[in-house]
Amino acid sequence: MSSRLASLEAYEKLINDYDTWLFDCDGVLWRGDHLIDGVIEVLDILRRRNKKVVFVTNNATKSRKSYKTKFDQLGIEAHVDEIYGSAYAAAVYISSVLQIPKTKKVYVVGQGGLEEELRDEGIQFIGGTDPADNTIAPFDLSQFTPDPDVAAVVCGLDTQINYTKLSKAFQYLISNPGCHFIATNEDSTYPTSAGLLPGAGAISAPLRYALGKSPVCTGKPSSTMLDCVKAKVHFDPKRTIMVGDRLNTDILFGKNGGLTTLLVLTGITTEEEIIGPNPSPIVPDFHTQALGDFRIVERPL
Length: 301
Ligand SMILES: O=C(O)[C@H](O)[C@H](O)COP(=O)(O)O
Ligand SMILES: [Mg+2]
What we know:
The chain is α/β, with parallel strands linked by helices. It has helices at about 10-15, 40-50, 65-75, 85-95, 110-120, 165-175, 200-210, 225-230, 245-255, 270-275; strands spanning about 5, 20-25, 30, 35, 50-55, 85, 105-110, 125, 150-155, 180-185, 190, 195-200, 215, 240-245, 260-265, 285-290. The model has no long low-confidence stretch (mean pLDDT about 95).
């Protein structure tokens, strides 16, 4: 059963017990471009208490560098080497795990952030933001010649999704032998300041259905994302806490990694889902309304 934080002592104890704090972004720090109340103060408290702060997001629309710009714009202190996104995890997976030859290419269903991370890993790509693929014109298969050098299809959140991209991705996956099917993440929904929208999982779903097979997922809860963090950040899992708003990504990611987990209710998951009559089988160690609740340690009620 998840334990709800409700006293000054409980918030103090959590801060004292954990040296490394991994934070999800959408639904924890912000919703779309709207900062969630109390986030800046609490991150400052943790930094002043010499806690290691790391950001782990499944949102593949931005690269780590473009996330740094978003943090700056929202007034949140963050450094590029503290930021880990599913686009970065996908690029590292392709270059270091699959080791696709540099002569090969990736067909992208996704946005600029994913392309930037692929480029930074020296991976050639087509599709993505290419205007030729961002069209509402009907797709004519008889006019399409698959590029034989495409060795993988990677699918992330793409707000410009269309039938042409789905068709080309599908064609590469059925015609190029051994073509890898990768999803940056499979979140079903995406929390914005105006409400919920379809998530990256809803973008790769038509391909999963058409192919009858699932992609390799590199974002949370997969271990690929934690391996990316571990490769750059030293931390003791026993003294590390994962803070997130979604059970089947953030909390499962923490549990899979042997970390302690804290659920906040400012994003996807409602309290009903953890303490209601039919609670989720994914149980966080702790939960609280919002990250901002930790301000109590410096302004006791
Ligand atoms: O659809 C998506 O990609 C997700 O909803 C979104 O990106 C989640 O981001 P996170 O909460 O992991 O920062
Ligand atoms: Mg989230």
